[in-house]
Amino acid sequence: MNNLCADIGYNSLNKYGEELCGDHVDVVEHSENSMVIVLADGLGSGVKASILSTLTSKIISTMMAAGMSIEDCVSTIAQTLPVCSVRGVAYSTFTIIHIVNGTEAELIQYDNPKVIMLRDGENVDYPSEMIDIAGKKIYKSKVRILEGDIFIAFSDGAPHAGIGVTLNLGWKRENIIEFVKSFAHVGFTAKTLTTMLLDECYSLYGGKPGDDTTVCTIKIRKREPMNLLIGPPSDPGDCGRMMSLFFSKEGKHIVCGGTTSNIASEYLHTPLRTKLDYFDNDIPPTAELEGVDLVTEGVITINRVLSYAQDYLKDNESYKIWSCKKDGASLIARMLFEEATDINFFVGMAVNPAHQNPKLPINFSIKMRLVDQLGECLKKMGKKIKVSYF
After folding, report:
1. 167 and 218 together in one domain
2. Which terminal Cβ of the chain has fewer Cβ within 10 Å, N or C?
3. What are phi and psi for residue 370, nearest 5 degrees?
4. CB 228 within 8 A of CB 345
5. Residue ranges making up the domain that contains 289
6. In the chain, which stretches have pLDDT less than 50?
7. The predicted structure's pLDDT at residue 76
8. Do 203 and 264 fall within a single domain?
């Protein structure tokens, strides 16, 4: 097993005036380093398209993750989904990207725009083999993956962007490639690349998308462990054990909370240097401690990180805030969202007396809930999460 993993980010624009999106993306882990990503595009828009694209992606991702062949998956889809009586075409098209053992990407495409692959910032024309399954022409490719490879799958709403509005013939595939190439080398996450591509589609549509538009970006990267410690242990006698386990972990270390950072300072026998710089009036300043990559305040800071994480999973609008600010919450967001792939939480269960003031909207259960909710958000981002309580 190698040290590569897939950073996945996807989002959609609904057709103007529609409540539901007719496209759907499903991601299912097959094993430690294998996963199946399916982007399905339902015919038309609205409720019917949404139901059928969801059904298509669910069936394919579940079957492939269970080890079934693409032939069996497509045959099942062909027998399950109806064909439009008016147009004589299938109700849902699909793109499958199967990451196998962190070494190979298998691309299976049916009537969706061809997946874009970038390597070292340049477009790769990967070979495709056409196979006929249940009367459907399926294009199948296998590519050895390398660190930094980027795969971009999208529904036909992307190349249709701008037709009759800002462009005569839409946003052609070669134009999309040039657009992505212009910033692919910068090091953005898959989610940010997706957001930038969808923002451009939205702009080309003049703010009124003429079709459901979905983008799913997959970026191959090395695993990056990260460790976050918040709160002292319930038993003061466990401080040494908690700190020993925390600092023995590979990767960067983040310490959150005043009491917690003081315990870390004592353990490391190094002074804690507080700062007075307020980069955000609502977020307490950070501190410095040799041997720790970032020291911040606890609950208030983590609450802001949680709000950024929840937005990241939706429209990623707050990216323009946390991507460049220097307050503790923004720094943690960049480390967890953009750098980390595997995150270890070390959570102290001690009740902080300062949080028991009835005038403060903070208590022990809220702190635990913040950590749980942040962990769930990070899992949805594709991070591997482990939480240890003390």
Report:
1. yes
2. N
3. -60, -45
4. yes
5. 225-389
6. 1, 360-363
7. 84
8. no
